[in-house]
Specification:
The chain is α+β, with helices and mostly antiparallel strands. About 65% of the residues lie in helices and about 5% in strands. The chain contains 21 helices and seven strands. A five-stranded antiparallel sheet has the order 5-4-6-3-7, with no helix packed on it. The chain has a two-stranded antiparallel ribbon with strand order 1-2. The longest helix has about 30 residues. The N and C termini lie far apart (about 55 Å). The relative contact order is 0.13.
């Protein structure tokens, strides 16, 4: 189809450009970026503009690379201080929740395909396989919508959902692999399956923690003159962790997520530049993965499975997910009924189920095409129904919280500098002590370094007059004294960033 490399690069550049514009438009109207990227892939695909792509092996390989990067980056961005209070709930949802969802949905699919004429009757194992493929959630797209709309959640819902979505992919992957092996071998001993599951979990946890610690040691000890090479070094480490863990029969996806947690919550050199690199790089691989999956599907094949896809999708949204959430969170008292309902509603299906649906295709499972098309249809349904309403449901359930203060100055100090920065709002109460900077009673070793006024910035002097609604950037090596000073001045509108 392509005559030279220039044509390939031209098409790729156009697709990426259109994807970014579509993502921007999607944020404004509340559509998940994932849905739009999938749609672009379908638009450029065989039923659209005619790009031919039908290789599930390549799609799976791209998905494997993308998931490794996405899970590591997600772990690196997760603060242990935020997830500790809800760690038990998140882990239960990510493990037991996946099992319960698979069981409930699998038995429903088995009953439905045996009842409705016109579809292949799936065996119980095939039905459970389809359910396992769809059992993991994708909350990343949800929070891109929430952040773009300025919506913040109460009751630690955000870290709970992010922990679940970041850590339930390994369980879904293991169930998918075990069920494929069960179907191919015409049966598997239950004990063998349980042992395989336990081995993958244990090896994934151990390898992720140990190799995460080794990664920190390597980054901090290897003296590379070019700072730009450190993110590339960490990228090599990610692929090593995933591959070596998988070769040892552990779960590579779990290992890279745990390693990301270790690296993200440990002091490493050039951390800010590394995080910035991975933010953009993760988005690139998400776009590539979603577009690839959109190219892989043939949209005309989705219409024949619309009936079963719609029925199973609605069942998962209304019954399977809520039952799973309420059962898993039954022992915990720190979530209200409204919070549990919201967690139930945010059980989005995303790119991961579609990637996992390629495994039956490659393995040659008899009804793999049906499984793939149904999973793709349900993913689109979930994103359309749940993904476009997460903001409205949060407000309807009164679970929205006050937004975080905006970082007006956007200045970050190197981690090596032990200091605290703060941004304060100049109000009438503050000016009641005097309208000049020198009249603010600030502790020793504290400096006012910048003022923002009417969108402009300048460095103040002692006799600089402060105006109401000014923003003042402060830096100090004694954050406790700074807080006490703010309290004595009656300053309430401030943010504190400690190194």
């Amino acid at each position: 189809m392509f005559h030279n490399a220039e044509e390939v690069l031209l098409i790729c550049s156009v697709i990426l450009f259109v994807s970014i514009l579509a993502g921007k438009a999607g944020f404004r109207v509340g559509l998940p970026a994932l849905l739009l990227f999938l749609g672009i892939g379908m638009l450029f695909g065989s039923d659209g503009l005619g790009l031919q792509f039908s290789n599930p092996q390549i799609a799976q390989f791209i998905g494997m690379i993308a998931l490794s990067i996405i899970l590591f980056s997600g772990g690196m961005d997760t603060k242990l201080s935020e997830i500790k209070p809800i760690a038990s709930q998140g882990v239960v949802l990510a493990t037991l929740g996946v099992l319960v969802t698979t069981a409930i949905t699998g038995y429903f699919i088995f009953w439905l395909t045996g009842l409705v004429a016109g579809y292949e009757t799936l065996t119980l194992a095939e039905s459970l396989l389809m359910a396992a493929v769809m059992s993991s959630t994708d909350s990343a797209s949800v929070f891109s919508i929430l952040r773009s709309k300025g919506v913040y959640l109460k009751q630690r819902l955000r870290p709970t959902l992010e922990l679940e979505s970041g850590s339930n992919d390994p369980m879904a992957y293991m169930l998918t692999i075990i069920l494929i092996a069960y179907i191919q071998s015409n049966g598997m001993n239950f004990l063998d399956g349980a042992i395989s599951l336990a081995v993958q979990l244990i090896l994934g946890l151990i390898a992720g923690y140990i190799l995460g610690k080794v990664s920190v040691w390597i980054i901090n000890r290897v003296n590379v003159e070019n700072q730009s090479l450190y993110p590339i070094l960490l990228l090599a480490v990610i692929f090593f962790i995933f591959s070596i863990t998988s070769l040892l029969k552990g779960n590579g996806y779990l290992a890279v997520y745990i390693a990301g947690l270790v690296v993200g919550n440990t002091k490493i050199i050039h951390k800010k530049s590394i995080v910035t690199f991975f933010d953009g790089f993760t988005w690139l691989w998400q776009i590539v993965m979603f577009i690839t999956l959109g190219l892989l599907v043939n949209p005309h094949e989705l219409l024949p499975v619309a009936g079963i896809g719609l029925t199973v999708g609605i069942f998962m949204i209304i019954f399977a997910r809520p039952i799973t959430v309420f059962l898993c969170l039954l022992p915990f008292r720190n979530f209200t009924t409204k919070a549990k309902l919201y967690i139930s509603w945010v059980g989005l299906r995303g790119a991961v189920p579609i990637i996992f649906a390629t495994y039956p295709l490659i393995a040659g499972i008899e009804n793999a095409n049906l499984i793939f098309n149904v999973v793709f249809f349900i993913t689109i349904l979930s994103l359309l129904v749940q993904g476009t309403t997460v903001t409205h449901v949060a407000r309807w359930l009164h679970l929205t919280d006050a937004p975080e203060r905006k970082d007006e100055f956007g200045i970050e100090l190197p981690e090596e500098i032990k200091s605290a920065m703060s941004e304060i709002d100049i109000t009438k109460e503050v000016l009641s002590h005097g309208n000049k900077l020198m009249q603010l009673k600030l502790p020793d070793h504290t400096l006012a370094v910048m003022v923002k006024r009417d969108g402009k910035y300048f460095i103040p002097k002692g006799n600089t007059e402060l105006h109401e609604n000014d923003k003042l950037l402060m830096i100090s090596d004694n954050d406790e004294a700074l807080l006490q000073s703010y309290e004595s001045l009656g300053i309430k509108g401030f943010t504190m960033k400690k190194n």
